[in-house]
Write a structure and sequence with these properties.
about 30% helix; methionyl-tRNA formyltransferase activity; 2 domains; Rossmann fold; 4-stranded antiparallel β-sheet; 7-stranded mixed β-sheet; alpha/beta; about 325 residues
Length: about 325
């Protein structure tokens, strides 16, 4: 039962699970990349901007990585589930491993492997089911989030749990560091589960159909501007969200020249009696602040290349 497993990976981009699985003792026989939500064919300018972004990040995309490793690759979109199903059947995998998908996997795919299909989810299920647990865990001031490896079934993150790991983050943890912490825990957890599956010792535990939290849905376009409840939430809670996520969401009224890449940088916070209306941005003694109900947060202006590229992408 300890023989090498044949694994198919389904993910988006060159995610944290790809290289560890390809370099493991098992054999990755196929890679399926899930197309982004509402994906559209890129125009020449958008392709150029993506090319520049990849140079800045200095990494290879998933398709190029699969080609380099001589692993069969296929893109999964909402119209070609049957084609992907046939491809995977031909690869005869023992296991499918999923992380970061933009859509629910259909039964004609997740039922193919003899050992089933497992998913790495960035929360402690059944809490924070859904496609975007991160922003909702920040909003709830969750400083002990976690990761879950579970079987995929017909529901959304409802399959039997194989393993979980609790993580610890700091107040205001930047999203990049937050992801690193959860992903490092997740990769270790995933390796352990695969070893148990290889040895025939893995046992899933049914999870409650009810969750203690609402579905972790994606924010709609423009919704981030009204996401923070300024009149209800404490300055500590708001600072945690802003310091962690502000470079990825437009929570605040944008500064001048935002189209040219100017954005807010979040400074320190303090509890104090605040005479300004919550969410008001004001200047005092030459310093810029945003008011909260029980304190204030220091703001700075800075140039952000990420912001500039994102604004250019919106135009094309």
């Amino acid at each position: 039962m300890n023989k090498k497993l044949r694994i198919v990976i389904i993910t988006m981009g060159l995610s944290c699970i790809v290289k560890p699985l390809v370099e493991s003792q098992d054999e990755v026989v196929g890679i399926v990349e899930c197309a982004p939500r509402n994906g559209v064919k890129a125009g020449l300018l958008r392709e150029f901007l993506d090319f520049i972004k990849n140079i800045i990040k200095w990494h290879m995309n998933l398709k190029g990585y699969a080609k380099q490793k001589r692993i069969p690759y296929m893109l999964l979109d909402k119209n070609n589930h049957n084609n992907v199903s046939e491809m995977i059947k031909g690869l005869n995998p023992d296991l499918i491993v999923v992380f970061s998908m933009s859509q629910l996997l259909r039964e004609n795919i997740f039922s193919i492997p003899r050992l089933g299909t497992i998913n790495l989810h960035p929360s402690l299920l059944p809490a924070y089911r859904g496609p975007d647990p991160t922003i909702w865990q920040y909003a709830d001031l969750m400083l002990h989030p976690g990761v879950t490896v579970h079987y995929i079934d017909e529901g959304e993150d409802t399959g039997d749990v194989l393993a979980q790991s609790v993580c610890e983050i700091s107040l205001g943890e930047p999203l990049e560091r937050y992801n690193q912490i959860l992903q490092s825990h997740g990769v270790v957890l995933l390796r352990n589960v695969i070893a148990q599956l290889r040895a025939g010792k893995a046992k899933g535990k049914k999870q409650s159909r009810e969750s203690s939290t609402p579905r972790s849905r994606l924010l709609k376009q423009g919704e981030s501007r009204c996401f923070i409840q300024w009149k209800l939430w404490s300055v500590k809670r708001i600072w945690h969200i802003l310091h962690g996520l502000n470079t990825h969401y437009d929570f605040l009224v944008p500064p001048k020249f935002t189209a040219l890449g100017m954005s807010w940088r979040i400074g320190d916070w303090e509890e104090c009696k605040e005479n300004h209306i919550p969410e008001d941005i004001y200047i005092e003694n030459g310093k810029r602040y945003i008011a909260c109900k029980d304190g204030r947060i220091r703001l700075y202006m800075r140039f952000s290349l990420r912001k500039l590229l994102r604004n250019l992408r919106k135009l094309f």
